[in-house]
Amino acid sequence: MTEKLLGIHHITAIAGDAQRNLNFYRNVLGLILVKKTVNFDDPFTYHLYFGDETGSPGTLLTFFPWSSAARIGRKGPDQISSFAFAVPSASIEFWKQRLEEFRVPILGLSRRFGQEVLTGSDPDGFSFELVGASSNPPSSGTGPVPGEYMISGLHSVTLCERSAERTMRYLGDVMGFRRVSSEGERTRCELNTEGRSNYVDVVERPDAPPGRMGVGIIHHVAFRAPDDDTQVRIREDLVGHGSEVTPIIDRTYFHSIYFHEPGGVLFEVATDGPGFLIDESRAELGTHLKLPGQYESSRSEIEKHLPPLR
Question: What is the percent of the chain with per-residue pLDDT over 70, rounded to a whole number?
Fold first, then answer.
């Protein structure tokens, strides 16, 4: 790829109950609800964006809440199996105690590639990891988590694949990642730009039962393009390598293209701008239901279908 990706932009997953999802990521993990909008393809479903105080690219975790329990997904190969946040390296014990206080299931405490990793499970069964990787100075955040312990952004995603080698070749040859290390069945691929690393870990599970999209499953991961012109060139590169790529789609807060890596995991490339402050001030972020322009005329009907959020 002639144009470099800047790292992970956001991760999008499918949650269950919207209020429960909001309560966990805001009140327990201390993320900020930076945008309350709807799924562009299903306006009767919320799209909730969590991140830092301005919704900076690289801090964003987003959810489509599906209320029907019958739509529960099944984890399997050729999916994103977990996502990881970076936290200050000295904060893992704080987070362990906090998860225990809120009775959040702890799935493990380990060391991976020289860093402490605390793995938990959210109310919908997502495996989230807190990686002691950040040396950022304490934040002045005013949320439920003291500034010196706050999540600083996304650290990595883990892909579960039937063929790890096939996916890693694509990450390297097409997307500009480099393999940096392996531990057991896990191989780490890195994008290192602007002094900050983002990782994609690949784990091979050739004999596992197939997965199914639904509640508790990560839908896709998006990578950063700094601007529209760069995104156009990235798209040209992807098409030139034989990838089937969507046209550029306006998502209001960024512009997106979508494609699948060889194992079938959905990837996105999203622009850094225009960002989340184009329709709400910093102090108002996440407080209003913001609709894409094509749905504004149907606001009353949409609001009737969406559950209220406290």
Answer: 94
Query: By CB neighbour count within 10 A (0-12 exposed, 13-18 middle, 19+ buried), where does 4 fall?
Result: middle
Question: Which range of residues forms the domain containing residue 257?
Answer: 8-305
Residue 143 within a domain: yes
C-alpha distances in Å from residue 266, one per residue of 186, 206, 221: 20, 19, 7
Residue 268 near residue 225 (C-beta atoms within 8 A): no
Residue 202 lies in a domain: yes
**In this predicted structure, what is the pLDDT of residue 67?**
78
Question: Does residue 89 form part of some domain?
Answer: yes
Which pLDDT band holds residue 211 (cuts at 50, 70, 90)?
Answer: confident
Say how far apart CA 100 and CA 89 lie, in whole Å.
19
pLDDT at 263: 95
The token pair at 128 is 């989230």
> Per the structure block, which two tokens stand in for 249?
């789609």
Q: What is the CATH number of the domain that holds 97?
A: 3.10.180.10
274 upstream amide cis, omega within 30 of 0: yes
CA dihedral 175, 64, 297, 309 (to 10 degrees): -140
In a domain, 2, yes or no: no
Residue 72 is predicted with a pLDDT of: 84
- Overall domain count for the chain: 1
Question: Across all residues in the chain, what is the average pLDDT?
Answer: 93
